[in-house]
Specification:
Radius of gyration of chain B: 33 Å
Structural class of chain B: alpha/beta
CATH class of the largest domain in chain B: Alpha Beta
CATH architecture of the largest domain in chain B: 3-Layer(aba) Sandwich
Number of helices of chain A: 3
Strand order of the largest sheet of chain B: 5-4-7-8-3-9-10-11-12
Low-confidence stretches of chain A: 1-7
CATH superfamily of the largest domain in chain B: P-loop containing nucleotide triphosphate hydrolases
Order of helices and strands of chain A: EHEHEEH
CATH architecture of chain A: 3-Layer(aba) Sandwich
Low-confidence stretches of chain B: 1-5, 239-247, 471-489, 620-631
Mean pLDDT of chain B: 84
Distance between the termini of chain A: 24 Å
CATH superfamily of chain A: Glutaredoxin
Number of strands of chain A: 4
Largest sheet of chain A: 4 strands, mixed
Shape of chain A: globular
Radius of gyration of chain A: 13 Å
CATH topology of chain A: Glutaredoxin
Oligomer: heterodimer
Helix content of chain B: 25-40%
Shape of chain B: elongated
CATH class of chain A: Alpha Beta
Helix content of chain A: 25-40%
Structural class of chain A: alpha+beta
Largest interface: A-B, 39 and 29 residues
Strand content of chain A: 15-25%
Number of domains of chain A: 1
Number of domains of chain B: 3
Chain lengths: 105, 631
């Protein structure tokens, strides 16, 4: 089950990321900062990034099975959940690269 | 106000749980349900969720450990109808399980706001007032560092509280007795902690539930037996003293008139009687008399026989002249013979409960609890008895339980929990002397009722049992003709050495009063009418006369006037009227007629003994016995 993404307009970009954050959460604030830094190191034309505030769209969070925030859901190319403030950017990039490799043989 | 009523509570509807928690779980607070795997935590949590939603407390069920579908299936399978509650909009199951569709990586710090906001949204949407989380252990897996874990759990519980949710959180424990949960943080934050256990005890499994902590509320402490059936979890609370006090003591016949006389007229309604004695002392016969008398009064009686197969039991009753067939046929008596060895004790309790709910008996006989005792471990038996007592109290039923014990155990052996359970304990026994088998019946204990304490003679005869008082308590016309030495009254007893003439037309009342006097040490000469009393006075001068007033033919006034007309000492015997006529003018008339005292019926044995002692001019108690008067 890939959840709430299905009724959204399909993105043509190979990477689709949703970062779930909550307000008044230092870890969420850090994650938002860290994802922007990571985006700077990625080819923006290949990535769709959406930031979802769980306090505003709890149904989407439920559909994506979000329990902890921040959580980065990699919807495409391979469904992956990355829980945490993304402080270790290298680890996240490794995840993205590995899914990239798997997605592009 | 008792402490127990201070905080608002939500009844859980789980059988027994609301009794041991004095009303349920704390409203708007958090409850931790912990135990090893297989102890029934999820079942309890689902049962609470189902019952709360049925009571109109809209509930969110957070499915972490299992998928919502699996949880609903489990609940529906136990008759909780979670599906129905979901349809009705009173229950919402939210999938909080870990995603399995892809990998989950942890990178850096996080909090639990995601789940909190999800819950908040549902609360807003449906107006939920309770949340059940199954389980915290699965939610925090893989397990975060201890500090973070503590903080996450605190955030979660704190937010539930902030939303005014009553929360039930399930957590796993590694062992039955030890650290409360594997995570080790939950119990500090929760207001109430329930521990479920499932211990192998001897050859049997024993489930129990304990309320380990309940902030700001009294609760029953210790482990309570419980069982899981096709209808969910049932807890058997021992709660003997919690039921509302019924001020009026209602009595019913034990089926043995002589026994009724020993205990102030009969057994007390809704009480548990244990009849104890060695094999062959007449326990089953007494149990049979009890059951038959109930059935003949038109009560519904269930007789559980654990000692022999049903045809043999029925035949034995018929042979002793107590056929039961008619009562069985007309549906007032059920005779069920079981082998406890073949049934687990929990199953037996469940079958007893089912029987209570379906047949609605007012009297229950278990013959004998010893067969149950022998088929289980000591702890298992104790829990069974506690569960049984709770079951009987809950339904407000009367019961007679027989117990096989031998020798001095008959009087002395009382496991404290059995003593707590029993409202009355009767001991049957026999002694073999040179010629004879001497049977006896003794009331060891009887809550809320006066009773004689001496052993009475018991005879087994066609039609059942017969009870006779031990002391000289024979009709005047047998007086002197019987060479039999009475069982000697104790020296030092308040009425030792006194002879009392008791005049009373009503046999039961006369025997009860005679028994009380005999128990006080008196020799009692009984007369059933004024004529009989006068005849007795011709041959024996009593020390005290006790006389009823309202009697057919001549009344008590007539008797005392005739006594007072007699010359010498015979005319001066102190006398008391013992009567139900208690108006001041009755008293005046009694005293004017020649009585020295006017005693009201009914009278407690102690008061009677004291009054008689005073009439005889001796100190009420403890004083030296008066010198034997020459006769």
């Amino acid at each position: 089950m890939s959840g709430g993404g299905e009724d959204r307009p399909a993105s043509r970009r190979p990477f689709e990321l949703v970062l779930y954050v909550s307000p008044a959460s230092p870890a969420s604030a850090r994650a938002q900062h860290n994802i922007q830094e990571l985006m700077a190191r990625l080819d923006r034309s290949k990535v769709d990034l959406d930031i979802c505030d769980v306090s505003e769209d709890a149904e989407r969070a439920e559909a994506d099975r979000i329990l902890f925030t921040p959580t980065l859901v990699v919807r495409r190319p391979i469904l992956t959940w990355i829980v945490g403030d993304l402080t270790n950017g290298e680890e996240v990039l490794r995840v993205l690269r590995s899914v990239e490799t798997e997605a592009m043989p | 106000m008792s402490e127990a009523t201070r905080i608002p509570k939500l009844p859980t509807g789980v059988p027994g749980l609301d009794i041991i928690t004095h009303g349920g779980i704390p409203e708007g607070r958090s409850v931790l349900v912990t135990g090893r795997s297989g102890t029934g935590k999820t079942i309890l949590a689902l049962q609470i969720a189902a019952n709360l939603s049925r009571q109109g407390v809209k509930t969110i069920l957070l499915a972490v450990e299992e998928s919502p579908e699996d949880l609903i299936l489990t609940g529906d399978g136990l008759g909780m109808d979670l599906s129905g509650a979901i349809k009705a909009g009173s229950l919402r199951v939210s999938d909080a399980s870990r995603p399995v569709e892809g990998p989950l990586v942890v990178s850096g710090e996080y909090d639990i706001s995601g789940l909190i906001h999800r819950v908040r949204a549902i609360v807003k949407q449906m107006g939920a007032r309770a949340v059940v989380l199954d389980s915290a252990t699965a939610l925090f897996s893989p397990r975060p560092p201890q500090e973070l874990l503590r903080s996450l759990f605190f955030q979660l519980i704190h937010s539930f509280r902030g939303m005014a949710l009553t929360s039930v959180v399930v957590a796993e424990a590694a062992e039955d007795y030890g650290q409360l949960t594997t995570l080790g943080v939950e119990d500090f934050v929760c207001d109430m902690v329930v521990i479920q256990r499932n211990v192998v005890d001897g050859e049997r499994r024993r489930r129990s539930l304990e309320v380990n902590k309940y902030r700001r509320s009294a609760h029953h402490k210790g482990e309570f037996p419980c069982t899981i059936t096709s209808r969910g979890l049932t807890i058997f609370p021992l709660d003997a003293r919690e039921r509302p006090e019924d001020s009026a003591v209602r009595r019913y016949s034990s089926g043995l008139r002589g026994l009724d006389n020993m205990i102030g007229g009969g057994l007390v309604r809704d009480s548990i009687v244990i009849v104890r004695g060695p094999t062959g002392s007449g326990k089953t016969m007494l149990a049979g008399l009890y059951a038959r008398a109930g059935a003949e009064r038109g009560e519904r009686v269930v007789y559980y026989g654990f000692e022999e197969p049903r045809p043999i039991l029925m035949r034995n009753f018929a042979q002793i002249g107590m056929p039961m067939d008619e009562s069985v046929r007309n549906g007032t008596l059920q005779v069920l013979c079981r082998y406890p060895e073949a049934m687990g004790l929990e199953d037996l309790l469940v079958s007893l409960r089912t029987g209570l709910e379906e047949f609605h008996p007012s009297l229950i006989v278990l013959d004998s609890i010893s067969s149950i005792e022998h088929s289980s471990s000591e702890k298992g038996f104790r829990q069974f008895m506690i569960g049984l007592a709770a079951l009987l109290r809950e339904h407000g039923r009367s019961a007679l339980l027989t117990q096989t014990v031998a020798g001095s155990d008959v009087v002395e052996h009382t496991a404290p929990y059995l003593s707590t359970i029993a409202d009355a304990i009767l001991a049957l026994d026999y002694k073999v002397d040179a010629e004879d088998l001497q049977r006896s019946l003794r009331v060891l204990k009887m809550r809320g009722s006066a009773h004689v304490t001496k052993p009475y003679h018991l005879a087994i005869e066609q039609g059942g049992l017969r009870v006779e008082p031990p002391a000289i308590s024979r009709r005047f016309d047998e007086w002197g003709t019987s060479p039999r030495k009475p069982w000697g009254p104790r020296a030092g007893a308040p009425l030792h050495g006194l002879r009392v003439l008791l005049v009373e037309d009503f046999t039961d009342a006369r025997e009860t009063t005679a028994a009380a006097l005999a128990a006080g040490g008196a020799e009692v000469v009984e007369a059933g009418s004024v004529q009989e009393a006068l005849a007795a006075l011709e041959t024996h001068t009593p020390d005290v006369i006790l006389c009823d007033i309202g009697m057919p033919d001549e009344d008590g006034y007539a008797l005392i006037q005739r006594v007072r007309a007699r010359p010498g000492r015979d005319g001066q015997v102190p006398a008391a009227a013992l009567t139900a006529w208690t108006e001041p003018e009755d008293r005046d008339k009694a005293l004017a007629s020649g009585f020295q005292a006017h005693l009201h019926k009914p009278i407690q044995p102690d008061a009677l003994v004291e009054a008689v002692a005073q009439l005889a001019g001796r100190p009420a108690s403890g004083g030296p016995a008066a010198a034997e008067r020459p006769r």
